[in-house]
Amino acid sequence: MLNGKKKYVFCFFAMICVLMMTSMVYAVLSGQCSTCHTMHNKQNNLAMVNLIVGSETTDAKQYLLRGTCLGCHASGNVNASGVDPVTNAPQIYHNGSGGAPDLAGGNFAYIDGTKGSGASDKKGHNIKDFGSFDNPSQPPGRRHDIAGINTTINNTGFTCAGTHGCHGIRGNQGNGLTAMKGAHHGNVDGALGTADIVANSYRFLYYVIGLENTTASKWQNVNAANHNEYYGATSPMDFDSSGCQTCHDLSTNNNRPNNKTMSGFCATCHGYFHLFDSSSGGAREGISADKIAPFSPFKRHPTDVQLPGTGEYSSYTTYDVVTPVARTSPPVSIGAGVTGSDAVMCLSCHGAHATDYYKMMRWDIKGSLATAISGCGNCHTGKN
User: What is the C-alpha separation between 52 and 68, in angstroms, rounded?
Assistant: First the structure.
């Protein structure tokens, strides 16, 4: 038996543990269970699954969810913070009414013309869940099967999550909500430096490191002091046979960027835009030279390469959300500055979901010289 002093210490320790567990639970998820879940799927003779959008109805019912991915995140109910005021889910498809902003990932509404300067399938990722988008059989720059490596991701219908999507486990888990199972309940906010499960990966992009904005504008990139932070590398991933095998093996749920960067993540689908082989300068496995991006000369705009702190680049010192850079160390806080240690990444130029510009660019590269320079000139200041 415990004596009085030991019993006091034990009880105090137990109380601390309970408080810590409680704080962690509230940090992970808050709100009523019924906001997202239904127990019976029927009440007053009305279906409770009332947020169905897209092709995931069966998955939603399987997990007693009231909505699909788009049912929650494209609900049509959006406030001036860009979220659904009922569920607090960030909205990635809306027409901007009431001053609703585009969030950091962009807005799918630009693709079908619900918002912006006119419909174009070249303005964003053409996920099939909306039903109205022209969904090509494979993404641009898709790297075909090389040396028997399974790189079939995305060639049978692009969706939000799963094998043919971006979010969740991207292996043989199927598409949609199954690949996201447990992620929202285990969600980790703020700095995400581990990324070994979906819940602690940046924006549920499996194996990607970053820092999710936790300010009042938490889903947005607002200005130099209020934005997400992205992780980059000082050199691109080496896409030799072994490297491809380990980042494209769907049988082991291992379709992921081995370097945990945002650009590495993009490369798992758009491989021809990222190819680099340090051992042979890119000339291997029968791939033609025009599809390779070795260091010198560049045949594609470099990514996961440090932005020089000299010459024309030295004037880019204040972080600009039009052309964000990636940090080459796992980000732990929001930084307003840009230094010679930061890296260019895919999202320096492109939006994630969709933008109002050609090829998902963050600015109008096909407009006037002034609009083109408005983005390019942030890094290439000598061209202004």
Answer: 5
Residue in 230, 234, 209 with CA at minimum distance from that of residue 221? 230
Interatomic CA distance for residues 299 and 296, integer angstroms: 8
- Give whole-number Cα distances, 361 to 33, 100, 263, 352, 365, in Å: 38, 21, 15, 9, 7
Nearest to 357 by CA among 345, 344, 375: 375
| pLDDT score for 35 | 82
Could you report the per-residue pLDDT of 109-162, keeping only the tens digit for each? 999 999 999 999 999 998 888 877 877 767 777 765 544 444 455 556 788 988
In this model, does residue 286 exceed pLDDT 50? no
Global confidence as pTM: 0.85
CA angle centred on 214, ends 212 and 216, rounded to 5°: 135
- Cα separation, 79 vs 69, in Å, equals 19
Helical spans, DSSP H, in 103-236: 109-112
Quick one: tokens of 203?
Answer: 């924006």
- List of residues 6+ apart from 220 with CB closer than 8 A: 82, 101, 103, 104, 213, 226, 227
264 versus 254: the higher-pLDDT residue is: 264
Distance CA 304, CA 345 (A): 6
CA distance 93 to 81: 13
For 356-375, what is each residue's pLDDT tens digit? 999 999 999 998 888 888 89
Nearest residue to 142 (alpha-carbon basis) of 270, 308, 285:
270
- The answer to whether the CB of 267 falls within 8 A of the CB of 274 is yes
Please give the DSSP secondary-structure letter assigned to residue 325.
-
Rg (CA), the chain: 22
